[in-house]
Structure formats: C-alpha cells, structure tokens
Write a structure and sequence with these properties.
The protein has 365 residues and is of the alpha/beta class. The chain has twelve helices and eleven strands. The protein has a single domain, classed as Alpha-Beta Barrel (TIM Barrel). Helix content is 42%, strand content 16%.
Length: 365
C-alpha cells in the first residue's frame, strides 16, 4: 500500500471516529445540578436569635446556606465583627446571603434607621461583601403602596432612582441587588420592568413563592416570568380557597399547600439552577383578597390569563385553621415551637421528596 493511500485511510478513520464520539458522549445521562438548600432567618423570628445563633442552628440542620434577611440580626455592622461572623459560617460550611428592608424612600414601609434610601443600600452592599454574600436583598414595600399618591408606578420610579444612584458602587463591589416581590407590592411584570430599567447586570430578583399569591398570581407562573432574573429566594407553600368575594390565602410549610413542587423544581433547574432553595415559612394565619369586587382592581392590574391560573388553584384549595397556642400553654414558647416545626418539616420535604441539598440530612435538631 502506498504511503499516500495509508495516510488517506488513516485520516478517513480519524474523521469517522471524531464524528461518532460526540454522538456517543451526548447519549450519556447528564447529571442534574445539586441545588443548595437553606433557610431565611425570618422563618424562626420568634426565637429572637442573632446571627451567631442562627449560624449554629442552620449548621445543626446541615443546611448549605443561611439567608440573614435583616440587618438587625447582625451583632455589628463593623468590619472586625463581620469578619468573625463570616469565619464562623465558613467553619460551619454555610454560605451567607444578606438582606434588609425597603429602599423606596416614599414607601409606607421605609424606615430611616439606616439613613436615607441610598445610605441604606450602600451600607447593605458593604456588609454583604464583607460576609461573602453574592447579593443584598431589598424590598420596595407592600400592598399599601399601591394605594399611595401615584400608585405603585410612582413608587417604582422612586426606587429606580435609588438603584441607579448606587449602580457604580454595586458594580465595583461585585454584589448584586435582589429585589423581592414583597407582600403584594409589585406584580411579577412590574418587578420585571423595574429590573430591566435599572439594569439586569446588577439588579435581579429575590423570589418569594408565598408573596406570589398576594398579587393573585400562581407561584409557578411567577417563576416562569422572574426565574431568569432570580438571584436569591425566600420560599414557602400557599393554601388558597374560594370565598364569596374572592379568595383567602394562608401560607404553609412546603408540601402542605397547593404548589406543584416537583414541577416547580423542574422549572427552577431550567431557569435558575445556581440559586439556593431557601425556606421562609410564615404560617398560621390567612388573609382575604376580595378580587371579585371592582374596588379591589382600582389599585391592581387585572390580567385575565394570569388571574385564571390563580383561580384554578383556589378551586383546589380548602380552608385552614389559624395557629393558636394550646389553652394554658406558654404562648411565646408555643409560637417558637410552631415556627421551628414548620421550617424543619419543609426542609425534610425538600430533602426527601425533592432531593434538594448538597449535604446529608441533619441529626435531630
């Protein structure tokens, strides 16, 4: 066989092998990303714990992340103490996420305790960086803001000014701002508009599945809209049931409500797999939403296709009783035990049913 012919056949074989190899590799099963599991400290607010105690508790539950969603739980905002807290979390194998309150200066929920809205945001970014948090969670306000002069669009405009003013500082720090869909303040499309106008390069979403219902949205539908922009999370379940004037909503532990969590997780993996599943259970009370009255829509945006999905959930729901301490029991202790129970049952469901978490189940907490 001539040298040129051998070279030709060898090259032909190599080319064929290179064509076959990718097809063989692509047919192999692709491992699903292991999504981190964590908690939002507001889930156990009745404990009154500060950050070091919260780190201990989250570590005992063998969680991957701990979301410190308010600055008040920090022993100090000074660098040495923040470094100590980060070292404690690192030793426990916990990644910290940080959040705080309203950065809209005209919101009914704005607090001046951290200075102006811009000062508050800059402080949060600085502290987040010191703790190694990739985000700083903020809120606009609540449902009451929809009824203020100019409505929610005026409040969004005011919030947007604060975000833009702090943009250079945020970009330099490497910390992104995660705006939550909070307590009925913004519909998902309104929050999306805020993010796009501010700049998705430094502003995203802290997604709250419970608060989705407070704007009459199906949590899964809200995830479809906001998932690509999600940076952080505060998750719980919803029980929704029909009433003569509309619907009632009660938040529950994960797995006790109407959210289709296997489907939710499937979409989570597709839209924001790098974001931890952080549990913020707030259970034991219901709230009425009289959306069948015209007065309700004076401050909300009626979108029939969105409302139809919410109503489909309500048709499946049932009324739940509110939490009450047993007669004669210590009310504070009962509340603490109730909150821990709701959180820990949610974590158990996330691990055993959904397969979440990067660490094994905890010993008894």
């Amino acid at each position: 066989m001539s040298t040129s012919r051998r070279h030709f056949l060898t090259a032909l074989s190599s080319a064929a092998a290179s064509c076959i190899a990718p097809r063989t590799a692509s047919s192999a099963p692709v491992a699903k990303p292991q999504i981190a599991l964590g908690m939002d400290n507001f889930a156990v607010r009745a404990m009154g714990w500060k950050a070091p105690e919260l780190v201990q508790y989250a570590a005992k539950l063998n969680l991957d992340t701990l979301f410190l969603s308010d600055l008040d739980c920090l022993p100090s905002l000074e660098q040495p103490q923040l470094a100590d807290l980060k070292a404690q979390a690192d030793a426990a194998g916990l990644k910290l996420y940080l959040g705080s309150w309203s950065i809209c200066p005209t919101s009914v929920r704005f607090k001046t305790k951290w200075g102006t809205a811009e000062e508050h945001l800059r402080t949060g970014i600085r502290v987040a960086k010191a703790l190694g948090s990739p985000v700083f969670r903020v809120i606009l306000g609540g449902a009451e803001d929809r009824k203020t002069p100019g409505g929610i669009q005026a409040r969004i405009a005011d919030c947007l000014q604060v975000l833009k003013a702090c943009r250079p500082f945020a970009l330099e720090s490497g910390v992104k701002i995660a705006v939550e869909n909070h307590a009925g303040d913004m519909h998902s499309w309104e929050l999306l508009s805020l993010i796009e106008r501010a700049g998705p390069d430094f502003v995203g979403v802290n997604i709250d599945s419970g608060n989705a219902a407070w704007t009459l949205e199906d949590p899964l539908d809200l995830l479809e809209r906001l998932g690509p922009y999600t940076l952080c999370s505060s998750l719980r379940d919803d029980m929704i049931w029909e009433t003569p004037e509309g619907a009632a909503i009660q938040w529950t532990a994960i797995g006790d409500g109407l959210v289709d969590w296997p489907r939710y997780l499937e979409r989570w993996r597709a839209l924001c797999p790098q974001v931890p599943f952080q549990i913020e259970t707030i259970s034991g009370f219901s709230r009425a939403f009289p959306y069948k009255t015209e007065a309700f829509w004076a401050s909300y945006d009626r979108r029939p296709e969105v409302l139809a999905k919410f109503e489909a959930l309500a048709k499946k729901g049932r009324p739940l009783p509110s939490f009450q301490a047993e007669p004669g029991a210590d009310k504070k202790l009962s509340e603490q035990n109730f909150q821990k129970g709701e959180l820990e049952r949610s974590i158990k469901y996330c691990r055993e049913v959904l397969g979440l978490g990067q660490r094994p189940a905890a010993r008894s907490a």
